[in-house]
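Field log, afternoon session.

UNIT: design team B
ACTIVITY: writing a sequence onto a fixed backbone
BACKBONE:
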C-alpha cells in the first residue's frame, strides 16, 4: 500500500522530520496520517489493500472518505471489507472512494453500505447536471448533513450534485 506518509511513519507512532514538516506546512493532515496508519494495519487482514494508494482523506459528516487509486479495480465487496475493517480500527465510519473509477462505481462507494438501485442524470437549462439516485429499500433516509456533504463531494469528484429519491 502507498500512502501520503513514508514507510517509517506508517509503521511507527511518531513522524519522521520530513513528514512532520509536511504536516506543519498543511500538505498533509492529521486525518491523512491516522487513516494511512489504519489502512496499513488493515492490510494485514485485507490483502487487496496491497494494490491501493491513498491520496488524501475528507470528512463527510461523521464519515471519513479515503480517496484512493487501485492498481486493479476493487470489487464492491472488497471495498466493503476494507471499509468494515478500517472503520473498526478507526472507531469512525470510513469509506474508500476510487478516484478514477467510473461514475456509477464512485456513487455506489459514496453510499455504501446502501446499494444504488438506479441512477440517472438530469440536465438543467443552464447546462448543470444533477444525478438522481435510487437506493435499495429499507436503508432509511440519509441525514441532511450527510446529503449536503455528499453533494459537496460529488461536485468535486463528479462535477455534479446528487439527489436521492
Ligand atoms: Zn515519514
Amino acid at each position: 500500500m502507498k500512502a501520503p506518509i513514508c514507510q517509517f511513519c506508517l509503521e511507527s507512532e511518531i513522524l519522521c522530520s520530513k513528514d512532520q514538516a509536511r504536516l506543519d506546512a498543511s500538505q498533509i493532515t492529521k486525518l491523512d496520517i491516522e487513516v494511512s496508519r489504519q489502512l496499513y494495519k488493515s492490510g494485514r487482514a485485507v490483502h487487496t489493500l496491497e494494490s491501493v494508494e491513498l491520496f488524501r482523506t475528507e470528512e463527510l459528516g461523521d464519515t471519513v472518505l479515503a480517496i484512493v487509486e487501485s492498481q486493479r479495480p476493487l470489487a464492491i465487496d472488497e471495498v466493503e471489507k476494507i471499509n468494515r475493517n478500517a472503520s473498526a480500527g478507526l472507531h469512525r465510519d470510513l469509506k474508500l472512494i476510487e478516484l478514477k473509477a467510473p461514475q456509477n462505481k464512485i456513487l455506489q462507494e459514496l453510499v455504501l453500505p446502501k446499494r444504488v438501485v438506479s441512477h440517472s442524470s438530469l440536465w438543467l437549462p443552464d447546462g448543470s447536471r444533477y444525478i438522481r439516485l435510487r437506493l435499495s429499500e429499507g436503508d432509511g433516509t440519509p441525514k441532511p448533513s450527510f446529503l449536503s456533504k455528499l453533494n459537496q463531494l460529488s461536485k468535486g469528484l463528479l462535477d455534479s450534485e446528487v439527489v436521492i429519491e
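LOG NOTE: The chain is about 40% helix and 25% strand.
NEXT ACTIVITY: expression trials, pending approval
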